Amino acid sequence: MQIDYYIYLSVALFCIGIVGVLTRRNAIIIFMCIELMLNAVNLLLVAFSKMHHLKNAAVNASAGSDGQLFVFFIMVVAAAEVSVGLAIIVMMYRNIHSVDINFLNRLKH
Amino acid sequence: MGVTQILFWILSVVALFSALMVITSKNPMHSVIWLIIVFFAISGHYLLLNAQFLAIVNIIVYAGAIMVLFLYVLMLMDLKKETEPKKNRWLKLAGAVAGGSLLLVLIAALKKADLANQFAETRTGDIGLIENLGKVLFNEYVVPFEISSILFLSAMVGAVVIGKKE
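Structure tokens for the assembled complex are given below, as produced in the milestone run.
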């Protein structure tokens, strides 16, 4: 499979995530769009690691496994991020009874 | 057009359509369901690239743990009652135009790149198997692995402290 198809797919998914972040107001959906962008980057990392492996397999049998481990670590960090972020959203809902980010333009209140 | 290409196009169409539905559906619950479909499509892509460990971890961690967490939070909040007021139409248009311009710029930049004979190997290669990844992870990446456990501990403590009622 040619690598540019994977690049275009990942770019499209990433831009859909960005449009979601910019247009929606629900904090949970914005959070989900961030997860979508992380997944687009993960897909591109895996595709590039396989490309690297195809070119350098004769020199180094485990060429490209670094990229897949980076994806693993991104997933680890995303899981930690989601747990803290959802706790913040729940606390925000408890205080102002809404998850609309327009109410959050002044964090003082 | 071989089986690999057909599977690639099917999975890509499913992923893109579901991603669009995530950002366009009104009900947040439907967005969560569509996002789970996106994650399954991306796991299919990982399987196609023979990255089996990441495919399983993606399903277990993302579709299994993270999205269930999102669903629980949505169910706790009961957002149905309050109908969110209509957003400014111009603001929405501006967001869509900004995202579309970024897509345009990236594609225009990639058109110039020399990628004609670069291939990602599909259905072969064994670096994505759990044996090889485990060897690399526990030989070269032991320290980041341990640090990520500390990160999880601090995230757990942070979530408990933030979510606690004062």
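Chain B touches chain A through 83 residues (CB under 8 Å). Chain B has a mean pLDDT of 90. Further analysis is deferred to the final report.
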